Amino acid sequence: GSLPGAMDLSNTAASFAALVGVSSIQQPSVLRVAPNDSANSYIIHKLEGAPTITGARMPLGGPFLDEATIDRVRSWIDAGAQSD
Questions:
Q1: DSSP readout, 5-25?
Q2: Do residues 34 and 77 make contact, with C-beta atoms less than 8 angstroms apart?
Q3: I want to staple 33 with a disulfide (CB 3.0 to 4.6 A). Which of 14, 17, 20, 60 is the partner?
Q4: pTM of the predicted protein model
């Protein structure tokens, strides 16, 4: 359920298992990815640089993802965050 500080997302199955339905290390009361609920998924907060995050915006040091890419992540989460 955990990933190193610099997340290596090259292994799809391991990434999915470490992100979906797993509590954030920085804010354990918030899931990294809450299926069907992007508004309460910590990964979205981190990608957007929300004022409620702990630490820095992702990806660390930028360049940051454009809004269209963040919207794709948001759509995947809101569609149930399936492993496909």
A1: SS----SHHHHHHHHBT-B-S
A2: yes
A3: 20
A4: 0.87
Alpha-carbon separation of residue 57 from 31, 61, 77, 82 (angstroms)? 17, 8, 19, 25
Tell me the per-residue pLDDT of 28-82, one tens digit each, with 9 for 90 and over: 999 999 999 999 999 999 999 999 999 999 998 999 999 999 999 999 999 999 9
Output the six-digit token pair for 76: 């995947």
**Which pairs with CB-CB distance under 8 Å and at least 24 residues apart come from 44-52?**
44/70, 44/73, 44/74, 44/77, 47/73
Q: Nearest to residue 45, comparing CAs of 35, 33, 61? A: 33
Phi, psi (deg, nearest 5) at residue 74: -60, -45
